Amino acid sequence: MIKLNYLFVLGSTLLLIGCTEQSKQVTQKPIKSNDVISIQQQGTFAVGGTVKKSPGEFDPIAHGAFNPSNQSNVGQTLHGDHASVLYQIPTEPRNLPLVFWHGYGQSMRTWQSTPDGREGFQSIFLKKRFPVYLLDQPRRGLAGQSSAPKTIEARTEDQLWFGIFRMGEGVNFYPDIQFSKDPEALNQFFRRSTPDTGPLSINLNIDAVTALFEKIGEGILVTHSHSGGQGWSTALKNDRIKAIVAYEPGSNFIFPDNDIPDPIAYVGGTLSAKGIPAEEFKKLTKIPIVIYYGDYIPETEVENPGQDQWRAALRMAKKWTKAVNDAGGDVSLVVLPEIGIKGNTHFPMSDLNNQQIADLMYDWLKEKELN
Q1: Is residue 167 within 8 Å of 173, Cβ to Cβ?
Q2: Tell me, what's the pLDDT at 72?
Q3: Spatial contact of 170 and 159, defined as CB atoms under 8 Å apart
Q4: What is the greatest pairwise CA distance in the chain?
Q5: How far apart are CA 118 and CA 142, in angstroms?
Q6: What are the beta bridge partners of residue 90?
Q7: Residue 299, CB half-sphere, CA atoms under 13 Å: how many?
Q8: Which DSSP state fits 31?
Q9: Alpha-carbon distance 86 to 88, whole Å?
Q10: 124-156 burial string, b = 16+ CB within 10 Å, else e?
Q11: Which phi and psi (to 5°) does residue 21 adopt?
Q12: d(CA 346, CA 335)
């Protein structure tokens, strides 16, 4: 692998090679910073995945021309179901890299820059000399090649997600919200959503991220929302995950099969936990874990579905934290308003105070001697 030594001004997190002047134009204002990041190595790769093969023998003469109206797949293969990874390694890197895994309907853009054009966690932690790996899980974003078909629906549901992500109700922001109220920031946020290009497969995602850690070695897994529960399941399969930072996990909580809590009802659904053998569950006690939840999560049932489902998730997370710690583990659960940090949405890494949120994570890593 070729090693590069470049200084990166934080107005751009990627080295763009061979760009024309026209392609350098951006619609947002560039990130401004006097800081520089020295990158010794960067690149992209795919990891995990499957190969699908059609029966028969490929004939390069008979089947070698591309003709969508009469295309033969005889004897041909399709490489899909992998994760796509972007990595950057700074000069004088810390020992353990950070692996960032996005949530539902999202991609690695969650961690890159904020919707209003400020530094994201990618740049923030590169400045702290952590190698960073950003991934798109299988059948999502840059890893969109799927071995199984799916119909993608063009549904008008921005306001639904505005509520579920606890930005506000309808089109109205919550008071004192940490998310930028610039209309262009919200426009950019909505345009980050990306659909699944194939059926969602938890096992496929776990296998791909497991393969990533097998490739890069020991590291720290940082999850968001839907990837939270998947992250814990990945840690059960791979002892190279040395810690987990989970932002607002919302599903796939796993418990010892002899101590599964009752399902928790919320407006519009029910949150249930999964059981695994107690001995397997104890693997989660071997690594430190921290969980962060933001603001606008009620303590009791409310009529607002966007808030009430997070009441259920936080309640389940508290039960899960106790279960791991009672088994001898080291889980910290931090509700940001309870420590004086208010106004955060479901995307604290994108909020106006994301530097403060990143510092909180860094302090925890330092406390656990993972920095």
Answers
A1: yes
A2: 81
A3: yes
A4: 69
A5: 23
A6: 39
A7: 3
A8: P
A9: 7
A10: bbbbbebbbbbbbbbbbbbbbbbbeeeeeeeee
A11: -60, -35
A12: 12
Please state whether the predicted TM-score (pTM) of the whole model is above 0.85: yes
pLDDT band at 295 (very low <50, low <70, confident <90, very high): very high
Rounded Cα distance between 212 and 216, Å, is 6
Domains and CATH numbers, the chain: 83-367 (3.40.50.1820)
DSSP 62-121: TS-S--GGG---TT-EEEEEEEEEEEEEESS--SS-EEEE--TT--GGGGSB-TTS-B-H
Check if the beta carbon of residue 219 is closer than 8 Å to that of residue 135: no
CA distance 130 to 206: 23
119: Cα within 13 Å, side-chain hemisphere: 23
- Cα(36)–Cα(225) distance, integer angstroms: 31
Q: How far apart are CA 9 and CA 13, in angstroms?
A: 8
Closest CA to 121 of 346, 358, 319, 324: 358
Summarize pLDDT for 114-161 with one digit per residue, the tens. Answer: 999 999 999 999 999 999 999 999 999 999 999 999 999 999 999 999
Question: What are φ and ψ of residue 186, in 5° steps?
Answer: -65, -40
Cα dihedral across residues 193, 196, 200, 204: positive or negative: negative
pLDDT surpassing 70 at residue 13:
no
Q: Are the beta carbons of 289 and 253 closer than 8 angstroms?
A: no
9-18, 33-42, 304-313: which is most confident: 304-313
SS3 content of the chain, % helix, strand, coil (to 5): 30, 25, 45
Give the CA dihedral 119, 123, 129, 130, nearest 10 degrees.
120
